[in-house]
């Protein structure tokens, strides 16, 4: 598909202060938002606003909002765990600060989990919601095995640092299929395989690992989400196979009694990543179709 990206003015804003400061960006003019073309809020977690900038460029018919989730990007860093409820409250604060009424929202990965939590607590904030590959274990038959892997990652992070833990994370998210009983008996991956150092620098501010186990073990509010009807779309990549996040999406869709919407490419298909080509143009076209 031909690229069709338009550069627009991007303005930086902050809601909150001190440790609760959240940085967000507005692409275009909020004054152009309408009831049928509200502002489009694109977000992930722990990926910050830079990861959604390419996708934002495809939506020139409305203002687009991106942000840095708590603990990531331009926001204050820390070492304590971050809850899904904190992320959902931050999303609500950003939407309130926009002052344009309900937004259309696309949340991917941990951002999809945070979106589902936002819909349960502040349904008035969102017109149409697209939750793309939420990495949730609660509805999976191998939940206990998944949570054991997460527990092992957290232990590794505490004892050995970022490189060793992230190597385990990458291997896990690449794994295709249910997690077998003997998964943790396999040799630990070498961080060098992924261009990372095994040396522990002492830092414990990694936002991805700070989001665990809360993100993975979040339990959706089925009744609240069912009330959204077809205004809530649960999406998974056609190339994602049976990787954990895609299975999480299908488990949420099954719990809600709705089909899973196919989106182009894979978990990160909305952007181009080294060694993992996506289909951002096709992804944007599919998202536009879903939003109507």
TrEMBL record:
Residues spanning the signal sequence: none
- The AB hydrolase-1 domain covers 61-159
InterPro entries cross-referenced by the UniProt entry: AB_hydrolase_1 (IPR000073), AB_hydrolase_fold (IPR029058)
Question: One of this protein's Pfam families, by short name?
Answer: Abhydrolase_1
Q: Which domain of life is it from?
A: Bacteria
Q: Which residues cross the membrane?
A: none
Q: Which GO terms describe its molecular function?
A: catalytic activity
Q: What is this protein called?
A: Pimeloyl-ACP methyl ester carboxylesterase
Q: Which species is this record about?
A: Microbacterium kyungheense
Q: What is the lineage of its organism?
A: Bacteria, Bacillati, Actinomycetota, Actinomycetes, Micrococcales
